[in-house]
Amino acid sequence: MFAAQTARLRYFLHPYGLKATGSRLGRASIITVLTTAVFILDTVTDLEIATAVFYIVVILIAIGMFRRRGVILLSIVCIVLTLCSALLTRSGSYEAGLINSGISIAAIAITTWLALKMIAAESAAHEARAQLIRIARINSLGELAASIAHEVNQPLAAIATSGDACLRWLAAEPPNIDRARLAAGRIVDDANRAGKVVARVSEHMRGEVAETREMSLNDVVLEAVALAQSEIDRNGVALRLDLTDALPPILGDPVQLQQVLGNLILNALEAMADLPAPRRSLDLRTWQDDTTVRLCVKDAGIGIREDHLPLLFDSFWTTKAGGTGMGLAICRTIVEAHGGEIRASLPGPAGMEIHVGLPARAGS
Amino acid sequence: MTDEIDPGELPPVVRIVDDDASVRAAIEDLLASVGLDARSFASTRAFLDSGMPDAPGCLVLDVRMPGQSGLEFQRQMAALGISLPVIFITGHGDVPMSVRAMKDGAIEFLMKPFDDQALLDAIHSGIGRDRLRRAFESEITTLQARHRELTLGERAVMESVVKGLLNKQIAGLLGVSEITVKVRRRQVMLKMGATSLPQLVRIYDLIAPGREVGQTPGVEPGS
Fold first, then answer.
1. Region A290-295 average pLDDT
2. Shortest distance, CA A14 to any CA of chain B (angstroms)
3. Do A190 and B33 touch (CB under 8 A)?
4. Do A225 and A348 fall into the same domain?
5. Which of residues 172-231 of A touch B (CB under 8 A)?
6. Do A165 and B23 count as a contact with CB atoms less than 8 A apart?
7. Given an 8 Å threshold on Cβ–Cβ distance, is A157 in contact with B112?
8. What is the mean pLDDT of residues B32-58?
9. Which domain covers residue A74, as residue numbers?
């Protein structure tokens, strides 16, 4: 379990626009080893041998893990190293060395250019996919709301109409008490029926944990961060990860928990949208508290009014202009289905903290 | 609006089609409380199978039902020979849906839960429209029956008269004496119940071949 180290690595790398996650640590070391190897080889071999061309392998490996600035930085390093090798190498023809270095530098530059194009295409695809997920979420929510509205509206319509009929029977001269009583009876029945619909919906919303497996909360956090990385970068938010090493595993549905994390991160980013860029920061912290694994998502955003805190996780409650008011309600539904708890607090004059606690897997 | 029932006119029957039993019962009871007779059905299929009572009325139709939707049914009604005015009730309607329903001739498009007075107003307006249509259709039926009573000679004279021909011209056209034309013309006026030539022309227009029976006279939509 080296998630914590990875996390710290991420934190240090982030300001330079580098992108690394746990599974990519291996590749980072491969790049370092390869770069050093090519440099040594290039330096010890004759000037006639263009070993520096192999720097393109380093660039190609870097495509998948570094962002734009990282790749540019790496290619500059490679070019500088090529020139250093050429200067350090004593054996071989000077002219051949000049030409070979030129060829190597051209190869590195061309590869970098292609790599940058690939990264741009990849991030465009990522953006499109994220957009699609958002749309799908809103659509399914709309359909759900429409079907609930229909289910609840039927008894409501019957109640209103029966109530009107009841009043008319009572207003008749002489009042028709028997018919009025029948109408009132129907109102009670229909109200009970509406109540059952609502109960069924909330039962459905409470949901079941679809797939349960053992996992580390740190991994869930890192995967959610990776998914939201482009949004985090776009908003210029400084991400701080403080993930406690060797957390006990939790049992749950990784997709659902990732959804929770994704939602919390996106909310935090939205809350900081109006802040000057240097003040935008997002803290993700995990730690163990007895038999509970805890997570805290802290932003420096606008926060909410203190008296709104208890409403935060209610369905359809939102302070956002285009919000559905379902995001945090779904988060709570998922966390509670995992036997956990979620709450919000206001840490100080600015920002907000969302605390999630999940039970650690028993016997570990 | 009050219910003025003609001596020869049957009391109206409101038909309700909604898949929800509570809604049906509630509307039936509401109508009973204002003295309106109603019959309700769980689906458009059940409504069609029930047969049509010969009474004026209107159709309160739910939009969203399992099986055939109310909007689909509205579009098929003309082909099925059902000319009842339609009032839609729906749990979740949108603007395009209501526009389409109104364009297809619906009287009202009400969202559930609806105001009882709005429903009753729409129902009264629908019954009024249906009465007008029925009166118009029965007038045509009567006139057609009278027209059938005419002899072939009288019919020929009638057709020429409404075209504006003079007795002399008609006599020449049909090859009979002017006296005969005058006698037949008098018979036509009597049998068709017309007191003037313009009235006879109007009657002829109503029963003229090619004229579609069942067309409603100028009732303002949504009135």
1. 92
2. 49
3. no
4. yes
5. 172, 176, 179, 182-183, 186, 189-190, 193
6. no
7. yes
8. 90
9. 3-131
- Pick the residue of B16, B22, B94, B114 with the most A CBs within 10 A to test the interface with A by mutation: B22
Q: What is the pTM of this model?
A: 0.50
- Domain count within chain A: 3
pLDDT tens-digit map of A315-327: 666 666 656 666 7
For residue range A160-186, list pLDDT tens digits in order.
Answer: 999 999 999 999 989 999 999 999 999
Is A149 in Cβ contact with B29 (below 8 Å)? Answer: no
How far is the first Cα of chain B from the last one, in angstroms, to the nearest whole number?
A: 12
Same-domain check for residues A44 and A95:
yes
Interface residues of chain B, partner chain A, Cβ below 8 Å? 20, 22-23, 25-27, 29-30, 32-34, 64, 89, 91-92, 112-114, 116, 119
Q: Is A87 on the interface with B (CB under 8 A)?
A: no
Instruction: For residue B51, report the phi and psi dihedrals to the nearest 5 degrees.
Output: 80, 155
Q: What is the CATH number of domain B150-207?
A: 1.10.10.10
- The length of chain B is 223
**Mean pLDDT computed over every residue of chain A:** 81
**Residue A123: phi, psi to the nearest 5?**
-70, -30
When pLDDT is averaged across residues B73-81 and rounded to a whole number, the result is 89
**Domain closes at, from A110, A131, A152:** A131
Same domain, yes or no: A342 and A230: yes
Residue A262 structure tokens: 């994704």
Same domain, A282 and A260: yes
CATH number at residue A287: 3.30.565.10
Q: Which residues of B touch A158 (CB under 8 A)?
A: 20, 22-23, 25-26
Tens digits of per-residue pLDDT, B123-166? 999 999 999 999 998 999 999 999 999 999 999 999 999 998 99
Q: In terms of domains, do A223 and A324 share one?
A: yes
Check if the beta carbon of residue A215 is closer than 8 Å to that of residue A252: yes
- Looking at residue B172, what is its pLDDT? 92
Q: Distance of alpha carbon B133 from its chain centroid, rounded? A: 3
Q: Could you say which of A70, A103, A131 is where a domain stops?
A: A131
Q: What share of chain B is helix, strand, coil (3-state, %, to 5)?
A: 50, 10, 40
- Minimal CA separation from A202 to chain B, in Å: 20
Secondary structure (3-state) at A129: helix
Model-level ipTM above the cut of 0.90: no
Report helix, strand or coil for B155: helix
CATH class in words for B13-136: alpha beta
- State which amino acid sits at residue A296: C
